[in-house]
Design brief:
The chain has about 180 residues and is α+β, with helices and mostly antiparallel strands. It folds into 2 domains: about 60 residues; about 120 residues, no CATH class. About 45% of the residues lie in helices and about 25% in strands. The chain is built from 4 helices and 8 strands, in the order H-H-H-E-E-E-E-E-E-E-E-H. Strands 1, 2, 3, 4, 5, 6, 7 and 8 form an 8-stranded antiparallel beta sheet that branches. The N and C termini lie far apart (about 110 Å). Bound molecules: zinc ion (ZN) (2 copies). One zinc ion binds next to loops.
């Protein structure tokens, strides 16, 4: 009889012993969850701050602002244009050729060069967009001669001597005048 009593008593004793364990495990789990979440938040903030610094540094090193200023300079500038038929007019600079307002023939911006012996000579310019998007002089032409690379020396059509540009670079001259004005 006693054995059966002890045998019946032991099972109800077991559950109360087991119950505290899951409860303790739960509290331990909650505490453990809070600690990694704070660490994760800190690491996330650190990563975001590092990304912000990296982005700021990347933007600071980008040559884009200089290119934008250069492009604005070319389109804002009033340049002298001359068409194939000899009409001259003033219009804003652009990379592409511009049709003449009078005869619709292609016209090109003209810049001044000077021969020490023969005086000023008008030189036609063709601009091109570089890989960075900045416009630069690509080709030059004296009178109605052949186009030649802008890197070549510009020679006088009469004596063949290399000529000197009156303003060193139309874009540089514009930048200077802009700096003086503003
Ligand atoms: Zn014309
Ligand atoms: Zn000359």
């Amino acid at each position: 009889m006693d054995r059966s009593h002890t045998a019946r008593l032991t099972p109800p004793d077991d559950p109360p012993v087991d119950r505290p364990h899951p409860a303790r495990r739960h509290t331990v789990r909650i505490v453990r969850r809070r600690i990694p979440s704070r660490a994760a938040l800190l690491s996330l903030l650190t990563a975001m701050a590092a990304a912000a610094v990296a982005f700021a540094a990347w933007r600071w090193w980008q040559p884009a602002p200089t290119v934008a200023v250069y492009q604005r300079t070319l389109s804002d500038v009033e340049m002298s244009w001359r068409c194939e038929a000899g009409h001259s007019f003033t219009a804003s600079g652009q990379v592409a050729d511009r049709p003449c307002a009078m005869c619709d023939q292609p016209a090109y911006p003209v810049i001044g060069y000077e021969c020490k012996q023969h005086g000023p000579v008008e030189v036609a310019v063709r601009f091109t967009s570089g890989p960075d998007g900045a416009p630069r002089m690509s080709q030059l032409r004296v009178n109605h001669g052949a186009w030649f690379p802008a890197s070549d020396p510009v020679r006088c059509p009469q004596c063949g001597a290399p000529m000197v540009p009156k303003p060193a670079d139309p874009l540089d001259a514009l930048n200077r005048s802009k700096k003086k004005g503003g």
